[in-house]
Amino acid sequence: MLDSYLPVLVIVAISAVVGLAIIILSTVLSLNKDPSRIKLMPYECGMDPIGDARRRFSVRFFLIGMLFIVFDIELIFFFPWATIYEDLRMFGFVEMLIFVLVLLVGLGYVWRKGALQWE
Amino acid sequence: MRIVVGDKSPIIDELQSIFPDAIVAVQPVRDNVPTVWVRQGSLKDVLGYLKSGISKPFRTLFDLTAIDERLRVSRNGQPESDFTVVYHLISYERNEDVRVKVALKGDAPSIPSIVKLWPCANWYEREVWDMFGVRFEGHPNLRRILLPQRWKGHPLRKEHPARATEMGPFELPDYRAEEEDSRLQFHPEEWGLPDYGPDTRYIFLNMGPQHPGTHGPFRIVLALDGEVIVDAIPDIGFHHRGAEKMAERQTWHTFIPYTDRIDYLGGVMNNLPYCMAVERLAGIEVPDKAKVIRVMMAEFFRIASHLVFYGTYAQDVGAMSPVFFMFNDRERVFSIVEAICGGRMHPSWFRIGGVAQDLPKGWEKLVGQFVKYFPARLDEFLKLVMHNRLLKARTKGIGVYTLDEAIEWGVTGPGLRACGLEWDFRKDRPYSGYDQFEFDVPTGQNGDAYDRGAVRAEELRQSLRIIEQCLKMMPDGPYMADHPLATPPPKHLTMHHIETLIHHFLNVTWGPVIPAGEATAIVEATKGNNAYYLISDGNTNSYRTRIRTPSFAHLQMIPLIIRGSAIADLVALLGSIDFVMADVDR
Amino acid sequence: MDLAIPVILVIVKVLLVIFVVLTFVAYTTLLERRVLGWFQVRLGPNRVGPWGLLQPLADGAKLLLKEEVTVTAANRWIYLVAPLIVVTCALTPFAVIPFAKDLYLDRIFDQAASKFVLNTGVISDLNVGILFVFAVSSLGTYGVLLGGWSSNNKYSLLGGVRAGAQMISYELALSLSVIGVLLLAGTLSLTQIVEAQDSVWKWYVFRQPLGFILFLIAGSAEIGRTPFDLVECENELVAGYQTEYSAMKFGLFYLGEYAHLLFLSALMTTLYFGGWQGPFFPPIVWFLIKTFFFAFVFIWIRATYPRLRYDRVMAFGWKVLLPVGLFNVMVTAFVYTLWLQYRG
Predict the structure, then answer these.
(1) B191 interface with A at CB cutoff 8 Å
(2) Which residue ranges make up each domain of chain C?
(3) Is the ipTM above a cut-off of 0.90?
(4) Which domain holds residue A54?
(5) N or C: which end of chain B has fewer CB within 10 A?
(6) C251-275 tens-digit pLDDT
């Protein structure tokens, strides 16, 4: 178990270190280190920004975000099912069919309710 | 010099019978557009009647501008006036124009605003305020539109200096630059937007002037709810170069290169209305060959400009490749233009009374090759762009305006035809011999971004048809009118008659003296209708040059169309309008 | 001592893979520019070195020397960490991609090679490989989201939000599309999936054509390629979430993006096109040929299609891809059951 995850840990660590090294290298090497005041302003097409970007922001798809969590968790059940399908056969098929139908009913419901719509 | 037709126009008779006190005078002009002077008090009534009371009404406010009359010498019986505000209306049903003028007195004149009558008067009135200092009473937001807010004076007034040397050196130290920046800061309340409060979910966003999707320095301030546009406020003027003021100090002849740069994709297409207007003032009849050459070159530039539109239109909805194919073919067009004119984007090749040179030897071969080559490419572009399903999904039903809105807001050209009105100046008021050519006027039905693209795609084909006919039927004869005011007269003749030598000398050194008068010339330019309204005071340079460009009207309409759509739709809409900021700001 | 040598060897192997991946990433950018140039009747970069082959180096050097600008109003730490997240999440999944059959290491290190399964052509053959892949690569969205938010720029914010929207719309379809393959292979391990496709007709692309198409579509949405490149589409959002990034921090986003592209191509090769399997050439060559073919396909798509609108992208994911994905899974299961029944 550990045998197979150790290399994963190593690659995570090395990727992060490589990334960090690149940033540090770039900071050290960059030729101009004194950007002007204007450069340090957020870019808004050459104008002074109107207000701050950190404020209430209307995310219209937050409901879809919720749905995503629900559906994603449900989809996780497919993975073990698929792996041992050869043993389950017809039983597994019928079982999953019922599950999928329930899922589809849920999808149909939110669809009808307009949760997938924006306006 | 009086032109009789102007006085006898039935529309003037009708106005005189209905508003006997309102009409102060009827002015003869060189372009036969009925021109009436109206008392300031009854202006709104007269315009209101013309817009909705009359049968077959004048529903388009084509242009609104002003003239500083204080130094004008030859007034030819016009009423006393210091500043004249001019309203140019068009009726597509009648295929007629009417020009309404109002005389204003004093140094700080004011006049009632007609924004309630024509919403599109908004920007025009702001421009007149900006340029002439004429105050429009009742205007919702009368502020400068083209010049910076801090500008002193009103530049198109005659006392405003025209040369840099008259104004003192220009300086922009850092503190001043920051001041300028802070002046450009957007304050919603100044634009009549509701106060959304500090805890609002709406955010304000500057889109432009430095934005890849706005096709030049064009600023739209967006009020966004997420990505949905609640309101949009276009702001122009970043590309203003004072072309109209320059026209007042250049000679009639030397202003031609400036016109090239108005719609910088249109090249000689811009020369055409200017030269036509001057020729109307001077009474020059252009020889047939020059007319056909002009038509051919104008259509080449229509192709060049539409290709840029076509490519950027696809680019705006995210297709990367078409723009390269189209610029490639535009290059072919330019190589022909270069062979004929010597210039590419701005050849400045038309002259008062004709064109600069005869066609070079072998031009038929070049044009012939292109005429053979291009149709297959157009088919390919159609497949690549207009038939692409993703592009259709991005443009169909997007940026819709109705035909009524288009007419009210002064939309012209392909944007108008995309709503279903078959109106093309080349067909309906043929100029420069367009009536001799066979071509169709493509129209759309839905007035959406897709139709605007489709109309232009088909116009490319029609332009090619016209070029093909020019190729087959190029007449013989002179390329320059035989008229003392045609500038410059053919050089080779100067060595033969003294008359021509004198004209050549005078027209080239001083410039031609164009007889006093007023004339407008309107053409179907690449982006809509381009008009030059020229006033001559009998001098070597223009007394007033008004350049009416199509894009100005089109951009003003954006908020109306785009409220409630997404940012992506705004970009698709901007792509489908086909504007260049030089054409808007002049 | 017993442990040290294998660990060092693992580190060496990982470093080697990362170095190779980074090199390929750099050259994918060149490939993209050259191929796009070729599609668009122009040349593309061809001045630095022969055929422009040194262009990626020149770009890297340029980015390294560029001025570092961190917006005053930005949230510095998150702003700094965001590109790191993207890069890490783009490089890590390569750990489970089987790029070759074996490395012939047994000839050199008999003992150690067997100890840590070093000899395989994969860094780690996780038994939950495919789950790991999805888990890690979708974490990369956090980098984009955080980068967009921390810049304190509205365009970046909009780009970041779009990244989130895109993720929640396509993640489902992406996982659904591979269920068919898992079902037929009966395993989550990518190595075993490759081994199950030992002849061309057993490639899963032929048994799961619909699944493959779903994967291609959802995959290009996942990595934000045309027609789903909403996150940084320049016509609308200037540069999207990267607007405020400069120098090598920007470079890291770029790197992460192309690493992701390569990774997805490699995954497609692995899942549907028999991975490193193929006649005549050594496995690694086959693997690279197939992977770069898909990289080419993505570039090709970019040269061809316009971009979809944000809400339509979401609607498409939920209303089309999700039902079709479920349909594909059930049909696969049904047909497979019949086949198993028939075979006995």
Answers:
(1) no
(2) 4-343
(3) no
(4) 2-112
(5) N
(6) 888 888 899 899 999 999 988 888 7
Nearest to B269 by CA among B530, B548, B552: B530
| Alpha carbon of A42: minimum distance to chain C alpha carbons (Å) | 5
B173-223: per-residue pLDDT in tens? 888 888 887 888 887 777 777 777 667 778 888 887 888 888 888 889 888
Exposure of B107 by Cβ count < 10 A (0-12 exposed, 13-18 middle, 19+ buried)? exposed
Which residues of B fall below an 8 Å CB-CB distance to C?
203, 205, 211-213, 226-227, 314-321, 324-325, 328, 388, 390-391, 393-394, 566-569, 571
Residue type (1 letter), B364: E
User: Based on the number of CB atoms within 10 Å of its own CB, is A86 exposed (0-12), middle (13-18) or buried (19 or more)?
Assistant: middle
Give the whole-angstrom CA distance, residue C225 versus residue C233: 10
Q: How many Cβ atoms from other residues are within 10 Å of residue B204's Cβ?
A: 22
CATH number of B243-585: 1.10.645.10
In a domain, A32, yes or no: yes
Rounded to whole angstroms, the Cα distance separating C169 from C173 reads 8
Cα–Cα distance for residue pair B227/A60, rounded to 1 Å: 8
Length of chain A measured in residues:
119
CA dihedral (B415, B417, B423, B427) positive or negative = positive
The model carries a pTM of 0.87
pLDDT of residue B375: 92
CATH superfamily of B4-155: NADH:ubiquinone oxidoreductase Nqo5 subunit (3.30.460.80)
The verdict on a CB contact (< 8 Å) between A61 and C323 is no
CB count in 10 Å sphere of residue B354: 29
Is A118 inside any structural domain? no
Give yes or no for a contact between C156 and A56, defined as CB atoms under 8 angstroms apart.
no
Q: Which of B175, B180, B181, B239 is most worth mutating to test chain A (most A CB atoms within 10 A of its CB)?
A: B181
Q: How do beta strands B35-38 and B23-27 pair?
A: antiparallel
**What is the average pLDDT score of chain B?**
86
Answer yes or no: do C306 and B388 touch at CB < 8 A. Answer: yes
